[in-house]
Amino acid sequence: MNCPVRERIEEYLDGALEAEAARGVRTHLDKCESCRALYNELEKIDTLVGAWQVELPGDEYFRSLAARTGAEKAAGGAGSGSARALRCAGRLFWGAMEAAAAAIIVLAAWALLSYEAPVRLAADENKSPVDNIYSTTMTRYELFSANEFEKGVAGMRFSDIEEEI
Amino acid sequence: MDQADADRLVARVKAGDRTAFGQIVEAFGRRIYSFVFRMTGRHELADEIVQETFLRAFRNLDRYGGGRLISWLNGIAYNICLDTLKSASSRTEREKRFAGARDIARGGKNDVEWTVLKRDLMERVAAAVGELPERQRAAIVLFAAEGFSIREVAQIMNCSEGAVMSHLHRARRKLKTVLSESEINMEEISE
Q1: Which of B7, B54, B79, B109 could form a disulfide with B113 if both were Cys (CB 3.0 to 4.6 A apart)?
Q2: Residue among A48, A75, A86 minimizing CB distance to B189
Q3: CA distance B142 to B71
Q4: What span, in angstroms and rounded, lies between the C-alpha atoms of B144 and B120?
């Protein structure tokens, strides 16, 4: 359908029409289904773009931002190389973030590798992998429980045992 | 921060009070960062451009002739974005931005808050905006996401209001295909 108003719908959406013209488009949209569909579609796009939320750095980033721009040094007349310096600062910041992440991974890997199970249990070739995992886990749990029980009893005072009884 | 407060801070910086500049950066840094990240899709690049924006703002504060300070700052950020993206317009860089755009869609919400459908749609929209030519992307981001009026967008982009509307028109047409492929219920998104 070729409504004369159709060409003005986007201007209306942009808020670029004078009050009277905007009123005219609004009135038309109430009556014309085709134009209303177009308006809704275009508005939907703006809504979606507006629905983005950028994941911002933390407050500390913005608190220290002025200092990192090197603006204060620039004011003191030492700013000729500050554009390069600020890039270095940026790389250092993100580099530090990456280094921190890498350190966490390395520590986690070290913790995993250095963990020594108290009892190593061989897998039974006749069982499925799932059954093996289950039976190994249960055996470990039983051994652990027995161990803890012994420790617990050894560490208990006579009065504690009496209370337990 | 309202414009009167911003003007007071600018006057203090011009008078030599450097701490006032820090307050300006803290007050407007988040909005500038949002815009720059939506333009670049990469945190590392956004960080560099945001720093450069405030450095240039500081050096050129005498040229700030009133109006909204946030528009003026966005104008500086926009120019730096254009220069930066122009020099990084190879296909590889575009692909990197595409990947970065996925971060945009996730936003500050966690996975529990976003359904798979919504996240998928937002990722596609973010990626589609990331593929728009720079001026169209800036126009739709400044207008629809940053909430500037057409006149303000024109000031930021240093072009006519007609040119902004033309960029918006083209951007919406391209993004329309993304929407037509999805069956998302808009009420869900606005919730």
Answers
A1: B109
A2: A48
A3: 10
A4: 20
- With CA atoms as reference, the chain B residue closest to A7 would be B169
Mutation target for B interface from A13, A49, A63, A92: give the one with most B CBs within 10 A. Answer: A49
The model's pLDDT over A27-65, given as tens digits with 9 standing for 90+, comes to 999 999 999 999 998 998 998 898 877 889 999 999 888
CB pairs under 8 A between A and B: 146
Give pLDDT tens digits for B124-154.
Answer: 778 889 889 999 999 999 999 999 999 999 9
Give A156's contacts (C-beta < 8 A, 6+ positions apart): A164
Residue A86 and residue A70 in contact, taking contact as beta carbons nearer than 8 Å: yes
B163, with CB counted inside 10 A (0-12, 13-18, 19+), is middle
Count Cβ neighbours within 10 Å for each residue of B79-113 and write b for 16 or more, e otherwise: bbbeebbeeeeeeebeebbeebbbbbbbbeeeeee
Residue A89 corresponds to which amino acid? A
Question: Residue B77 is which amino acid?
Answer: A
Q: CB of A54 within 8 A of CB of B38?
A: yes
CA distances from B48 to A101, B42, B51, B69 (A): 21, 10, 5, 20
Task: Enter the pTM of the model.
Answer: 0.67
Write the single-letter amino acid at A1: M
Predicted confidence at residue A106, as pLDDT, reads: 65
Q: How confident is the model at residue A124 (pLDDT cuts 50, 70, 90)?
A: low
Q: How many CA atoms lie within 13 A of A86 on its CB side?
A: 28
- Rounded Cα–Cα distance for residues B132 and B126 (Å): 10
Q: What is the pLDDT of residues B17-65, one digit of tens each?
A: 888 999 999 999 999 999 999 999 889 899 999 999 999 999 999 888 8
